[in-house]
Design a protein that fits this description.
Elements lengths: L50 E3 L5 E3 L8 H13 L2 H4 L2 E7 H14 L5 H4 L9 E5 L4 E8 L2 E3 L5 E3 L9 H10 L10 E7 L1 H20 L8 H12 L2 E6 L6 H17 L12 H4 L8 E10 L2 E4 L5 E5 L2 E11 L5 E3 L5 H12 L1 H7 L1 H21 L2 H5 L22 E2 L20 E3 L1 H4 L5 E3 L4 H7 L12 E2 L1
Parallel strand pairs: 11-17
Antiparallel strand pairs: 1-2, 3-5, 3-18, 4-5, 4-12, 6-7, 8-9, 8-16, 9-15, 10-13, 11-12, 13-14
Helix pairs in contact: 5-12, 6-7, 8-12, 11-12
Length: 478
Amino acid sequence: MMSLLKNRLLILSLIMSCTMVIVANGFCQDGGLDADGGDMDGNIADNLGGVKIDTDGVFQSKLFVDVSGDLDRQRFNAAQSQLNKDVQTPSQLRKISLNRLEAAYRKSKQSGQPIPPEMTFLAGLTRLTHVFYYPESKDIVLAGPAEGFFRNAQDRIVGMKSGQAVLQLQDLVVALRAYAPNSNPTRMISCSIDPTQQGLANLRQAVIEAQNQINANQGFGGIRDSEITDYFQQAMGMHAVTIEGVSPKTHFAQILVDADYHMKLIGIGLEQPPVRITSFIEKASPGGNTNSLQRWFFRPNYDYVKVSPDENAMQLDGGGVELVGEDEIVSANGNRTVTGKASRASRAFCQSFTKMYSALSQRMPIYAELRNVIDLSVAAAFIHEMDFYGQAQWNMKFFGNESKFPVERYNAPTKVSPAINAVWKQRQLMTPIGGGVNIQPGIALSSDNMKTDESGSIEKTRNSINVSNLQSDQWWWD
């Protein structure tokens, strides 16, 4: 293959990412909302958009673009006719009692009644902003803005008014199980996509050989860029996906990988985001260490977590997500060493991505979904830390039981093929690599970040919510 490189002067920027496909289940093909995660017959839906994982755990892209917007309009109208009218009314602070939701869901299942979509999609919550506990009624309550919802052309469940991604019950249950009653809390929820040691060694040697050919030759010959990138892709081989803290067979885990994948495409210039973000490619300079790899990963980011003096109320304040980076050095045999530093280009990309995260999440629902599962994780950790389970005498026997409420319904992602972008950058090859999600709710709830609300605003909000007037089977209200 190296002979193909002769007589061609290439300046490549080689960036490793991952091509992945996740089945975005939870909707039926006619545009309706199916609460059980498949089509109307209970089968797993093979949706037009999103991604897919085969039985070997390998991802493959499956994209659909609704250029005309006709499919969005059809699905919007179908959802309007099917969805509870009260749920469709926008609310600044919709409340959900976890205890009551579990009881209502269990009752519907045991009686053979269909599960309404407002249960599956948490009454249309588009963000989790508060957690409340009411000792008098023993209700554990989640709250946040909400509205009606529909399945858009990209197979994302989004708000009818805002277009923001809607929280899902299956993701909430995964978060609650990570911080389940009478258990040791999960220290970290993470996703990482990495080349193998042998793959890195092969790539490093291939880059050296290619650079030597580039430096030794003048002219370009008839070699296509695709042949160059195919050569490096073959050298790297498959990348491994590692998910910790939650089951990899869940929708929650797929969100982590999906967001990671799209972030890297933006960073390496293979995807143009709908908002202005400075990519790594724009700022990258080939003058640095040729053995240096870039790594980017998401983590929670709140201005602070505000808690009432009696610790029965909590509010999340801030964007919820930030992107950070660090350099790694790759040796000749493919070993990686973390430097604890980030290049100028990496810092510029991370800062720009974090700054624009909120705006990006409004246009690309996957990033709102990532923020949602991070919010759910922090809320679940708070419920566990404050022992609301014990105080409410709620043992989560239904939601906590996989045989009764299955969430591990997806093929686990294990491998991805590398995607390579060839970019002309002076006369040097660079090989940055990125990716990962690291959720540590304990850090978000640390003493440095968790502040007592001395103003009393959270307590006032909590006390304004009347739980005593709820009907016996009512689990959400405005």
